Amino acid sequence: MSKVKVFIQVDGSNFYHRLKELELRNLLDFDYQKFTQFIINEEKEEISLANYYIGSIRTEADNPKSQELWRNQRILLGRLQKQGFKIGFGHMLKTDTYHEKGVDVLIAVDMLIAAYENLYDKIILVSSDTDLLPAILKTKELGKTVEYIGFSHKASHAMIANCSSSYLLRKGDVEKFLKL
User: Fold this and answer.
1) pTM tops 0.70, yes or no
2) 82-92 as b/e, with b when 16 or more CB fall inside 10 Å?
């Protein structure tokens, strides 16, 4: 019996902020490879695609904070690539603060293209962003299973209601993937 092909999509900013809300530290050392093994059923499923989406940080000449953020993002991306992830980049728009742009669209487009090209049977979406609901509904119409992975302290009821299944992470679920 062949295994179910799984496409894992991680909304990096969404995931990072939920981890920070749990007051976890050393987030650059998060082991995404072990995390993906945790969220799939290895007996029945195999990862066919794993994508991590993030707004690309640009450095500003006289801004040491932007240079530190850029350096840390490069470290994170290098580690993710070594762990088998493809990186999808949005961009950062600066107004009074920084806002990530283009990531949700990229997630939705990748989800639908891969569904139409039959590259997966099941998608595991690690994001609570309800902007993805139209793509999720179309993906389900195409006969794909959509699993929502969120956090128990900030669950999206709309995602739970519209995805095929869901799992809400607790602090104990994710802290084991960090070096303490």
Assistant:
1) yes
2) ebebeebebeb
